[in-house]
Amino acid sequence: MPDVLPPVKPRKGFIGFVRRHPTMAIGGFLLLLMLCIAIFAPYLFTKDPTALAPALRTREPSARWWFGTDMLGRDVYSRVLYGARVSLLVGFSVAILASVIGLFIGIVAGFNRVVDSIVMRVMDGLMSIPSILLAIALMALTRGSVQNVIIAITIADVPRVSRLVRGVVLSLREQPYVEAAVAAGTRTPVIMFKHILPNTLAPLTVQATYVCAAAMITEAILSFIGAGTPPIIPSWGNIMAEGRALWQVKPYIVFFPAIFLSITVLAVNLLGDGLRDAIDPRLAKRL
């Protein structure tokens, strides 16, 4: 009788998690790295990102100036590292605010037909406008600041989150446990926040990662065209905007902030893909 090998047990711990969810692990590592860069920027051999030195302008990357200097003599390395603070602050803030507001609107609209017929038509109207154009229009009505950028991008992203939550709520309303709660005389607010809300958090978390990535790109676009954060603030969009005039002769001024922005957005998207696969393994297998 041939020997029967025992079944291979899945590895537990950190190594097992990385093997089961490599996309989430890579995205989380890159995002954690960017967070550490943003938090510990003053301790990573940086200088004052706003200090002007006209005598040292447009220096090539070297051992002294790791990323070179811009047309005003400012250290590009320091500006890029400090710029991570602005992009991550905008991305996380917009993701949290849009998720909370969209969650509330989606749950209420999914349970109340009167609210649904009014509020969701407003959301449809906002969704008919490209988010970047809506953000530009809102920024044109206010002065440039990080807070106003967060508010403008949040308003542009709320409709998409609320429509996602509303669709989930409409499907959950037909579930037997919800019908049983209604038959038992449970009040609607209790059903909404006890039975419906917990089941919307999984898809909402995945959506929040994409909102975060899109918000960072939108902030960079707004700053690049001069409609976002003030030029004095070292954001990645501002750095690229200031270096576009010298792109052909000094490409490093635009290259380094663009690389950091791309890596950060990639990290958030990988984390979102990993969360989606972990939440719905059957979908991952079909893909």
Automatic annotation (TrEMBL):
InterPro entries membership: BP-dependent_transpt_permease, MetI-like, MetI-like_sf
Membrane topology reported for the UniProt record: Multi-pass membrane protein
GO biological process entries: transmembrane transport
Domain named ABC transmembrane type-1: residues: 84-272
Subcellular location: Cell membrane
One cellular component (GO) term of this entry: plasma membrane
Keyword field contains Transport: yes
UniProt xrefs under PANTHER family: ABC TRANSPORTER PERMEASE PROTEIN, OLIGOPEPTIDE TRANSPORT SYSTEM PERMEASE PROTEIN APPC
Membrane spanning stretches: 21-45, 86-111, 209-233, 253-272
Family: Belongs to the binding-protein-dependent transport system permease family.
Name assigned to this protein: ABC transporter permease
Keywords: Cell membrane, Membrane, Transmembrane, Transmembrane helix, Transport
